[in-house]
Fold these 2 entries.
Entry 1:
Amino acid sequence: MQEAGAGLVVDAARAEPFASVEDYRAAVGRVREAAAAYYSGPDLAMDDAVYDALLARVAATEAARPDWKADESPTEVVGAGGGVVGDVVHSAPMLSLDNVFDEDTLRRWAVRLERILGRPAGGFTVEPKIDGLAVAARYVDGRLVQVATRGDGRAGEDVTGQARRAAGLPERLAEPVTLEVRGEVFMTDADFERANAMRTGAGEPAFAHPRSAAAGTLRAQDRTYDAPLSFFAYSVHRAEPPTVAHSDAMAELERLGVATTGGSVAGTPVCATVEEVLAAVQVLSASRGTLGFGIDGAVIKADQPADRDAAGSSSRAPRWGVAYKFPADTRMTRLLGIEVQIGRTGVITPVAVLEPVQIDGVTVTSATLHNFDDLVRRNVRPGDVVFVRRAGDVIPEVTGAKLDERPADSVPFEPPVRCPRCDGEIDRTQKRWRCTRGRACGAHESLAYYAARHSMDIEGLGGKIIDLVVAAGLVTDPADLYDLDVPTVAGLDRMGEVSATKLVAGIQASKGQPLARVLTGLGVRMTGRSMSRRLARHFGTMQALLDASVEDLQQVEGVGPERAVTIAAELVELAPVIAKLAARGVNMSEPDLPPPAVAGAPAAADGSATAVPLPLRRPDGTPMTVVVTGSVPGLTRDEGNEAVERLGGKSSGSVSKRTDLVVVGDGAGSKADKAEQLGVRILPAERFATLLAAFQAGDEAGVAEALA
Ligand SMILES: NC(=O)c1ccc[n+]([C@@H]2O[C@H](COP(=O)([O-])OP(=O)(O)OC[C@H]3O[C@@H](n4cnc5c(N)ncnc54)[C@H](O)[C@@H]3O)[C@@H](O)[C@H]2O)c1
Ligand SMILES: [Zn+2]
């Protein structure tokens, strides 16, 4: 038997069965309630990840204790039994699909299909699994006469009135044919925005996310507004059995004027082998964030009618097709607060601070709320349970709130009245609010940060002078600094010729600073000094860094998916300033590190060749934690820390039991004492300088001696 629940059973292998029959029954009850809510309208009981996990545990329990199994278990019926049964009886059952969650299981599915057929299948289609609601649409003589939901798979509800408005489901076909089209009614991301604007305009609560918006709209009885809907077909049924391949039938449907999954931006490749299918699934998964509509997986189907006939279906799902589910991209979590962020150009945006939530393996702690209009329109409040979507490499967004769980004492967020950074006026004429001072709003802070000792280290460029040049309109970004000349600066209030000359010379001298400092100075969000150094060393040049993909960025130690996305977005935003800096002759590369490789020497983790193994590594290869205190001959404090990292260590500011080494130089204070108390190894600063010199010269014996 178990062909029907195959997908569930496979996933169940990873799920934990319930310990008691009571717990099992309670879970079945919760699944049924959730499915009923899911298929009947805009409200959700739980997010898909939680639902899928619960259902997997139900299936695991049934596998372990078949004697406990509930009648009509949600694992065995279409839509877990949650569909609303209507009075439109389907011409043929509308089934569910079995699920697979990884490549191996898909391969096993294909092997099983081949065994049933007694030969390899004659090709597969790979379609996007649209995250909407299934409907069947009947055309008689080319006219749309009836649209029904899936219901329990046997009979569904009549939704003709609302479905007629779905883009892609035309009133009339190009030819007067009689057929039934099946497909998914959904909302594109853009439709979702428009729908919520209409809804809140009509005084109704906003939808929480696109799928519930589509479900709510399709089943709305009396509509005071016409929220947009879309449709993609994924199958066609005619009176006579099919003779052409599924892919050809769909192309024909497209020609008749119906939108299909194959005609969408996602496309529907036809694949000869399972390996080709897997490659197509990969491509689809990678494009997930950029399609403009939500998908929750890929649907793989045997393309040939003969294969479909031979494979047949169980009562719940066909054997000739399967859904390759992608990890859920939408989760529910608590909105802890709303922060106001002011960008470099003065754009003011609300940012959601979230209770950490795992989305597709990434811990998400903050998300964009787009703009203040949206915040009002989506009716999201601090304290709400919200829906957070993270699709592909895009910055996570809050799509809406779960209104039935809103705390009684919640209050709407008060948008700022004046710019929170400079107290200036806010321009609210555009969707994206801006500080009227634009780039100048944050200029003081960003210039001070750029000039600071740990960044570009520009002597003489302190807060007062920054105020002067910003107020005079001479400088709004760091690149403008390099255009300052002595006569202009000398003409400023309280500036003499001498100090002007010194300042301009200091600014010009900073052009030679290494890339790591340029990066630090630019203040890329989610990077600090040591991360900037790691990025600079890994990529070597600014161009290589700008060209890096989000995946490339994750090759750098300490850069996870959330940080990589932010860094990539920041670099795009900074690109104009970076180009301006480069045009003014600011160095955009990291000086060569350790000397060229000697045969047989290991390559450094960052890809640069080293002659000598990194000395500040523990036996297991992880970096030693090193504190530099007091002065190291020939090095500034920052350079001392840079040197630690070059030598493979991790520099830290405070001494603890976990510190591996403390470098003690002249002027060292309490840190040296503490190191002694804790018994942490101490290296005199001169020895450290010798170590660095030996390392840079590729002198392995010298390195060993310095550390001895
Ligand atoms: N959050 C909740 O409370 C809750 C409750 C119930 C279901 N769900 C979600 O719904 C999923 C299961 O329900 P379901 O109705 O999507 O799936 P299903 O397992 O019944 O799969 C079949 C459905 O996939 C859809 N589909 C989309 N694109 C398709 C394509 N190209 N070809 C064929 N079919 C296509 C159709 O609607 C079809 O009816 C679960 O995985 C779960 O994540 C969530
Ligand atoms: Zn401002």
Entry 2:
Amino acid sequence: MFLVGLTGGIASGKSTVVTVFQELGCAVIDADVIARQVVQPNEPAYQLIVQKFGNEILLENDEINREKLGSIIFSSSEKRQLLNSIIHPRIQKAMLKQIMKYFVLGYRYVILDIPLLFETNKLKRFMKHTVLVYCDPQSQLSRLMRRNGLSKAEAEARILSQLPLDEKRRLADHVIDNSGDWESTRLQVLKLHAKLEESLDFLLLRLAAVTTLTVVGGLLCFFLRQSLRSFF
Ligand SMILES: CC(C)(COP(=O)(O)OP(=O)(O)OC[C@H]1O[C@@H](n2cnc3c(N)ncnc32)[C@H](O)[C@@H]1O)[C@@H](O)C(=O)NCCC(=O)NCCS
Ligand SMILES: Nc1ncnc2c1ncn2[C@@H]1O[C@H](COP(=O)(O)OP(=O)(O)OP(=O)(O)O)[C@@H](O)[C@H]1O
């Protein structure tokens, strides 16, 4: 099994691409989904966040007000780093558990949807392939404003909190351009899936090599012992 790191910019179309991979039966782990789970009121990260950001970031039902927390962290890099330092280690731990699950289930590859894969730089080394979901800056801005109901300035602040997409483009092994329509994106995903399916699984090859060497070595020892016995 190997890992594929899928990333992009805010609202560049990661979830759209992931949906196609899921329709193809691929295993996907979504860091945004995990980030929501680890801040539920019964989780240790919840207490820490309330302690650091105050009760005013809570909704009436005591859950975290994501809109409010978002407006705080996207206008202050210090606050953003503080939140990241609480949530990211927990996301990584939960991801590792899910990777194990898919390994046991025998999946050929697992896609990790990690928006900040290139920014944090911690997980990149474990990826056999990295995929960037790109879209042109104008589409990214207008899609983000429309989806989240943000002003131009608010949307730009969120985009600027991440590495520019053109820079990420240089770091990625594969690029899916989601600037066009859904169908064009879907076709690119189908092509990439076929490529990944063909890609050699070095972990499996290494296991096969070790098994072969062990068996051949064992047989050699056995025959050597037999011939020494008959000789004496
Ligand atoms: C700030 C929060 C509460 C806003 O929640 P909201 O539901 O509005 O957005 P959602 O979680 O769906 O994230 C949307 C996108 O925002 C971007 N984003 C989220 N957090 C960050 C961050 N810390 N830095 C830069 N971009 C971020 C990503 O592109 C992500 O895909 C939430 O994003 C959060 O808890 N962020 C910190 C955890 C994190 O880093 N998540 C990204 C996964 S690595
Ligand atoms: N090819 C497309 N054409 C038109 N709209 C699109 C296209 N792809 C995605 N969108 C829209 O753009 C918005 C962002 O897409 P999506 O949610 O897939 O991005 P994302 O990268 O997962 O976002 P986030 O960073 O917030 O997790 C959504 O409202 C989606 O419906």
